[in-house]
Design brief:
Elements lengths: L18 H6 L9 H7 L10 E6 L10 E8 L3 E7 L25 E11 L4 E16 L8 E19 L2 E20 L2 E21 L8 E19 L2 E4 L2 E17 L3 E17 L3 E22 L2 E20 L2 E11 L4 E9 L2 E7 L1 H6 L13 E9 L3
Antiparallel strand pairs: 1-2, 1-18, 2-3, 3-4, 4-5, 5-6, 6-7, 7-8, 8-9, 9-10, 9-11, 11-12, 12-13, 13-14, 14-15, 14-16, 16-17, 17-18
Length: about 400
């Protein structure tokens, strides 16, 4: 299989990857990145065997929000691994809505764990499965009948199922994501128990990408992408025999695009293309419907990666799109609508660097704060950091 992983992976033992690299390249869907690709499709575990990777996010005012993972081969056809502390769910939709029934004492699931299981079914067909779980709970008890007992919990669990299929002039990949997201708060005072929870909470996604060389011997790859994601839930509160339900919330996103990945000699690689996104968010009570629609098209992407020295890589990313937005409220036979056109991705230019030492690679974006404040990071002025996201990876394959 011909896999051209951008940059220094072609001229050193390291395999640069991670959010630090991916973000510096503008989050382009038309590049290959070991770390990000395995997060999206566990079938890539079959190609990046015996590989360790991690993300650090040293943002000012934020706690540690990094994650780490490792893969290793088991025999010739099986590959295992795991990723720890990387959120991969839509649980935050519970909190980021007008859901007045959401209990304030319930927190997000913590320490998410994703397993990686990969196998090669044949020379041309590779599969991957990634079970996922994240949980949180808190329980308090009291002998005071006026205070009562409280049991709060949150959870997200499911799996990713992915494949990579080799074709004559390249490959195609697909990934299916399933999550069940849940929260529950049970409060008992005296003989009365009040339970606040959600119905539904199902999240589903399907994403596909191709890497096709149009002619034999061509180095330029055509990269089509297509994706679909949806989730929904309804909050409810039950106290004794009385049940109160909230709005039905639902989200849907469809995206597609096509681009080119073009290596220039051994030192430079360019990837660019155009994508489109159609996103809807809806809250429905039966009598009232609130619907927001975004249509982002065209959305342009450009990524450039170049070797500066054997140990140093420079990166530049660009992304800019046009968003057509519509907000609509329907109450019975009455409808109100507001629409407009605006530019998305205000901070559309990103820069980054990669540092490579044998099998070790450190990859980072250059912080937007550093651009604003300049070189005063040398003197510690304003306590600004130079890098926004730092990724590390180590290739310990023989």
């Amino acid at each position: 299989m011909l896999l051209f992983v951008m940059g220094v992976s072609t001229y050193s033992q390291s395999i640069p990857s991670g959010t630090g690299r991916y973000t510096a390249l503008g989050g382009s869907p038309f590049i290959l990145d070991a770390h990000v690709d395995m997060l999206n499709n566990p079938a890539w575990n079959n190609y990046y065997r015996n590989y360790a990777f991690a993300d650090l996010t040293p943002e000012t005012g934020a706690g540690f929000d990094g994650h780490a993972g490792v893969t290793f081969g088991v025999g010739k056809k099986w590959n295992l691994g795991f990723i720890v502390n990387r959120r991969s769910d839509a649980w935050e939709n519970f909190r980021d809505t007008t859901n007045t029934l959401f209990p304030g004492n319930v927190q997000s699931p913590i320490v998410p764990f994703m397993g990686l299981i990969g196998t090669s079914a044949s020379k041309n067909f590779h599969l991957g499965l990634a079970p996922y779980i994240a949980m949180w709970n808190s329980k308090t008890t009291s002998t005071d009948t006026l205070v009562g007992n409280n049991d709060a919990s949150s959870m997200s669990m499911g799996a990713n199922l992915g494949f990579i299929y080799m074709i004559k002039k390249g490959w195609i990949e697909g990934n299916f994501t399933f999550r069940m997201n849940k929260y529950k708060n049970e409060n008992t005072v005296g003989s009365t128990t009040t339970t606040v929870e959600n119905d539904g909470g199902i999240q589903f996604g399907a994403n596909f990408r191709g890497w096709i060389y149009p002619t034999k011997g061509s180095k330029v790859a055509i990269v089509p992408v297509l994706g679909f994601n949806t989730s929904s839930f309804q909050p409810k509160s039950t106290s004794g025999s009385t049940t109160v339900t909230g709005l039905n919330y639902s989200w849907m996103s469809i995206n597609g695009g096509v681009g080119l990945n073009w290596p220039i000699m051994d030192d430079i690689q360019i990837a660019g293309g155009v994508t489109a996104f159609y996103n809807t968010a809806k809250a429905d009570s039966g009598n009232i419907e609130i619907k927001s629609t975004d249509f982002i098209a065209p959305n342009f992407h450009m990524a450039v990666e170049t070797r500066i020295a054997d140990w140093l890589t420079g990166r530049l990313g660009f992304s800019k799109g046009i968003n057509s937005e519509s907000n609509k409220v329907t109450a019975g036979t009455t409808t109100g609508e507001q629409s407009g056109l605006q530019v998305v991705n205000a901070s559309s230019i990103s820069l980054g660097a990669g540092f490579h030492f044998g099998r070790l690679s450190l990859d980072a974006t250059i912080s937007e704060r550093w651009f604003r404040h300049g070189f005063n990071f040398l003197s510690g002025g304003d306590q600004e950091d130079m890098f926004g996201v730092i990724s590390a990876s180590y290739n310990f394959a023989k």
